[in-house]
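Minutes, project check-in
Item: structure for the 149-residue chain
Input as provided by the requester:
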Amino acid sequence: MHWNIYLSGEIHTSWRQQIKEGCKKLELPVSFFSAVTDHAASDAAGDLLGVEDKQFWRDHKSAKVNSIRTKTLIENCDLVVVRFGEKFKQWNAAFDAGCCSALGKPYITLHDDDSTIIHALKEVDAAAMAWATTPDKVVEILKYVIGKQ
């Protein structure tokens, strides 16, 4: 089986690349997809429909345009990895995890073991199939799940 994996969440570190490289080294049969990770481009997605002078409406339109990609990719993937970073609150990642839960889509959370974030994500982690603290741990989970011993 070839696995389609959606990588959701934090865009300011190289965690996506680390997972991709780890899976490539193990020759796992996977393809990766994600939301637009260029922050400025994502924020401006709604501008395609016309420029807004109020931030709320610009964000509203951009969220809707971005959700076309996100919704489609999550619905069509086999597994989701949801990364929560330290620097920013990733409300969009929590929303993606909630969508996965509602769709019955398995997901792995990826975040530090800091007690503050663990408490904030208790419901998100409770619905996850696994919690990893590093991209390497995600690769190990994927290796096991895919069955490449």
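Outcome recorded: The longest strand covers residues 3-9.
No further action items on this chain.
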